[in-house]
Amino acid sequence: MLSRTADHLFWMARYMERAENTARLLDVNYQTALLPQSQEAAQNGWKGLLSISELTSDYLKKHGEITARDIMTFMVSDPNNPSSILNCLRAARENARAVRGALTTEVWETANQTWLEFNRVLKDGMLERDPGEVFEWVKFRSHLSRGVTVGTMLQDEALHFQRIGTFLERADNTARLLDVKFHARNTEFFGSGAGNEGKEVDFYHWSAVLRSVSAFEVYRKVYRNVIRPEKVAELLILRAEMPRSLLHCMNEVVSNLRAVANDQSHETLRRAGRLRADLQYGHIDEILATGLHAYLTQFLDRVSDLGYGISRDFLMPA
């Protein structure tokens, strides 16, 4: 496959996944901001969201003051924010258009329709009326895109590069979500210690986190007990059967990388395999003892390095 074609397919999938994960990050912050808490705690939650998305300086240049409404507008519909959902959907559509011949009609029409309808959603004022509805819409369109891709594309290199882009982006965003939401509670992972009221707030906080990654029912099925922060971390980091966990994402990245391997990709495949092995044989107690923030920061660095290696080995030269 031409590196230019592989590049467009990789980034088409990655931008669509990024749009969905931005919607998930905003949704969980929007939901947890409705919980009983001090204004400072709510403000810290939004600050953490900007920080983990690496958008703090860009946001402050434009808005100065941190408010929930401005942050949602900035991350959803700001045409000058390269990471906004608007720009992610535009980029996904433009990458799909560039390789129209490598896609099925259904995949192209889904990407094109998503872009056109999202503009109508914004003009209709849905973001101002009900932000949660916009986030659900974005997630649904991403699910639709992924389902159409897997259901209609030939199982060849084109699909493999899309899957690599999807799961590399998902691993990055799951790690960011975990990091920002554990920081938001500012605890030692076991609740606020403020009696029953604190435990109740913790329950709703972690429920919102689980729902943001479609894992609330999965958690109940796997653990069958009260929601505990360390179990939330274990589910989203180490459980291979959880579709958005770090281990599941790396399993997919490695298997698809192996399917497209070439003479110069041995080192990239080795690094991906090493990262997967660390997750596969990891234990949540060791991770928490080391420090979850440090662990996730290192993971994000390794995923970024992996993305660079994939670009160097397969995609268009920068």
In short:
The chain has 318 residues and is mainly α. It is built from 16 helices and no strands.
Report on this structure.
With 318 residues, this protein is mainly α. The protein has helices at residues 3-33, 39-52, 56-63, 68-76, 85-98, 105-123, 126-129, 131-152, 157-185, 195-212, 216-223, 229-238, 246-259, 266-280, 284-290, 292-314. Helix 1 (3-33) packs antiparallel against helix 10 (195-212), helix 9 (157-185) runs antiparallel to helix 12 and helix 9 packs antiparallel against helix 13. The longest helix is centred in the first third of the chain and has 31 residues, at 3-33. The two termini are 18 Å apart.
Features:
mainly alpha; about 75% helix; about 325 residues
